[in-house]
């Protein structure tokens, strides 16, 4: 940022970055049911055993008839008469159940006769399922181009292939993080996100903690994004802030950021990168609280914001300090994929989460070209 004459605010260790940002822009553009059923079965079995027990027969012939009936019941056969000579239905254990009092009027096979069963085709095996086609072919490539019925306003990121992996787009006013190690294209992700909105008549803000204002504009222009023209037209504000200065005056920035966005009428914002801001706080609790307050201020500003973040050394699926991915609405993981056979190293992108949006969970290759990031949604890594 331009250096102005020393003021009282500077001597106090803070600067009015908000005024300078606007000045820069002006200058350059149920278990109970189961228990009851079990109890009914026990009661029925008890009754049947009582009925089936022979009651002191008067002669040998009666005894023989009674034992013949009991042996047949023990073998699982259905008895036509009970001990008193009346017609009955019996269960599998030989217990007689009076008609109308049983748990089921029909046996299990009879109950299935009228049920609607899925058609398994002529090639089905003995089990009826061996050659069934469950329609899983091509399931790893769902059609995410289909329009989604949602009341939430949505927008595209402006990245080829990646937008097709998100059904209906990212909900507006979402807080997004692009996370990856050095050289994976995090800054390009942010530039491309803003360029797409600017090309469609939106206004945007780019806050950089890593590069100078001029470097950001030149880098975007080289990729074919007319950032210099957008600045001249007062549709883009590029603000470079020293990370130490930002940490010292973060409270004022958090309070003034919604005002900057509102006065500039911006709908998209990029902060590159949040990791440098996190590094300013040695105490873990302080870091967490400050970053939480900062992300909340972005949500209150009413913009769709992209934060870039360094990935942890141990895994590409976590940020350096493990905070920002839990505070954001969407997480995009950019990473290197190095095969064991030492073939060419590839870049791959994965959508870790998007709140209120359906999305692919596949890992897809991408390239960083002179025009930005291009994701090959229909391709596999190797």
TrEMBL record:
Statement: the UniProt record of this protein carries the keyword Nucleus: no
Region Disordered, residue ranges: 1-124
Composition bias, Acidic residues: 24-37, 85-108
Pfam families: ATPase
Compositional bias annotation for Basic and acidic residues: 10-23
The UniProt record lists the keyword Nucleotide-binding: yes
KaiC domain ranges (all copies): 153-382
Annotated keywords: ATP-binding, Nucleotide-binding
Superkingdom field: Archaea
InterPro entries (alphabetical): Circ_KaiC_arc (IPR022420), KaiC-like_dom (IPR014774), KaiC_dom (IPR010624), P-loop_NTPase (IPR027417)
Entry GO MF terms: ATP binding
Entries under NCBIfam families matching the protein: KaiC_arch_3
Descriptive protein name: KaiC domain-containing protein
Organism: Haloterrigena alkaliphila
């Amino acid at each position: 940022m331009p250096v102005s004459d020393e003021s009282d605010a500077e001597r106090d260790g803070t600067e009015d970055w908000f005024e300078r940002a606007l000045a820069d822009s002006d200058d350059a553009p149920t278990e109970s049911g189961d228990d009851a059923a079990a109890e009914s079965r026990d009661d029925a079995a008890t009754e049947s055993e009582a009925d089936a027990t022979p009651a002191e027969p008067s002669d040998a012939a009666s005894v023989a008839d009674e034992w013949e009936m009991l042996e047949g019941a023990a073998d699982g056969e259905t008895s036509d008469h009970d001990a008193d000579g009346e017609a009955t239905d019996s269960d599998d254990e030989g217990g007689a159940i009076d008609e109308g009092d049983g748990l089921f009027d029909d046996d299990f096979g009879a109950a299935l006769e009228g049920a609607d069963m899925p058609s398994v085709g002529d090639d089905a095996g003995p089990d009826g399922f061996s050659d069934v086609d469950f329609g899983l072919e091509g399931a790893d490539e769902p059609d995410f181009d289909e329009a989604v019925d949602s009341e939430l306003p949505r927008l595209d990121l402006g990245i080829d292939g990646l937008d097709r992996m998100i059904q209906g787009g990212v909900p507006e006013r979402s807080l997004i993080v692009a996370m990856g190690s050095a050289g994976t294209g995090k800054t390009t992700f942010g530039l491309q996100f803003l360029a797409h909105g600017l090309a469609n008549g939106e206004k945007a803000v780019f806050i950089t903690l890593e590069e100078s204002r001029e470097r950001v504009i030149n880098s975007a222009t080289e990729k074919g994004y007319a950032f210099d023209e957008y600045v001249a037209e007062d549709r883009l504000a590029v603000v470079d802030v020293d990370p130490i200065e930002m940490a010292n005056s973060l409270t004022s920035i958090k309070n003034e950021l919604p005002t900057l966005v509102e006065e500039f009428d911006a709908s998209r914002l990029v902060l590159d990168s949040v990791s440098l801001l996190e590094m300013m706080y040695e105490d873990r609790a302080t870091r967490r609280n400050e970053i939480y307050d900062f992300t909340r201020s972005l949500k209150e500003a009413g913009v769709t914001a992209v934060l870039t973040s360094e990935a942890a050394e141990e895994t590409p699926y976590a940020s350096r300090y493990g905070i920002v991915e839990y505070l954001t609405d969407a997480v995009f993981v950019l990473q290197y994929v190095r095969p064991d056979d030492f073939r060419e190293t590839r870049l791959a992108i994965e959508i870790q989460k998007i709140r209120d949006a359906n999305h692919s969970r596949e890992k897809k290759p991408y390239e960083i070209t002179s025009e930005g990031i291009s994701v090959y949604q229909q391709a596999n890594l190797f």
